[in-house]
Every structure is written in structure tokens, then in C-alpha cells.
Design a protein that fits this description.
By secondary structure, the chain is mainly β. The protein is globular, with a radius of gyration of 16 Å. The N and C termini lie far apart (32 Å). Strands 1-2-3-6-5-4 form a six-stranded antiparallel β-barrel. 0% of the residues lie in helices and 70% in strands.
Length: 105
């Protein structure tokens, strides 16, 4: 894998919960790792749901091979959160992992 293609610094996050002063759970995100990635926008769609316009952007993010990445996590780059929908590892070469992501705005 050419390192020059991994030109975006991103943060991998997993859903986590914290507790407030009363012990009640607060849903949030926990940083797992900071990594370099290649982000490619694949398609976009705009529709109306519940009377409000919604745009959905699909992206493919390639990172160096790393175990433990699952659907449900997210990648954050420049304050944009990419929800991981599927994880496609390079099983043979173990060089990279492709992440099928979605940005809903």
C-alpha cells in the first residue's frame, strides 16, 4: 500500500456511555485510535423524510489493516462523522481495510 494515498488524519470512535453526577448514562462516543485514511465520496442522495429534506452521502474509507473495527463505529474527519455501515478487510494481504460509510446531514 502506498502511504501517499492515506492523506487524511481521522479519529476512529466507538459508541460509549458516560455517567452524569446522578449516575444516569449519557450516550456518547469514545476515541479508539487516530489513523491515516483515504476518503473517497461514492454517491449522494437527497430526499424528503417526515417533511424535512435529508441528504445521504456514501463514502469509502481505506485505512491500514487493523483488527477490531466493526459496523456501528464511526470515523471523524474535519468535524464530519462517517458512520461505518460495513467493514471489508483485505483478508489475503492484510494490508488495508475498506470501510463502507454514510454521512447523514
Amino acid at each position: 500500500m502506498q502511504a501517499g494515498r492515506l492523506n487524511r488524519r481521522c479519529v476512529l470512535q466507538t459508541p460509549g456511555t458516560a455517567t452524569d453526577e446522578l449516575g444516569q448514562p449519557i450516550p456518547g462516543w469514545t476515541d479508539v485510535a487516530t489513523l491515516w485514511a483515504d476518503i473517497r465520496m461514492k454517491s449522494g442522495l437527497e430526499s424528503i423524510k417526515a417533511g424535512a429534506p435529508v441528504s445521504v452521502v456514501q463514502a469509502s474509507i481505506r485505512v491500514r489493516y487493523r483488527a477490531g473495527i466493526t459496523a456501528g463505529m464511526r470515523v471523524v474527519h474535519n468535524l464530519v462523522a462517517y458512520e461505518i455501515k460495513a467493514v471489508l478487510p483485505d483478508v489475503g494481504g492484510r494490508e488495508y481495510v475498506d470501510l463502507v460509510c454514510e454521512v447523514v446531514a
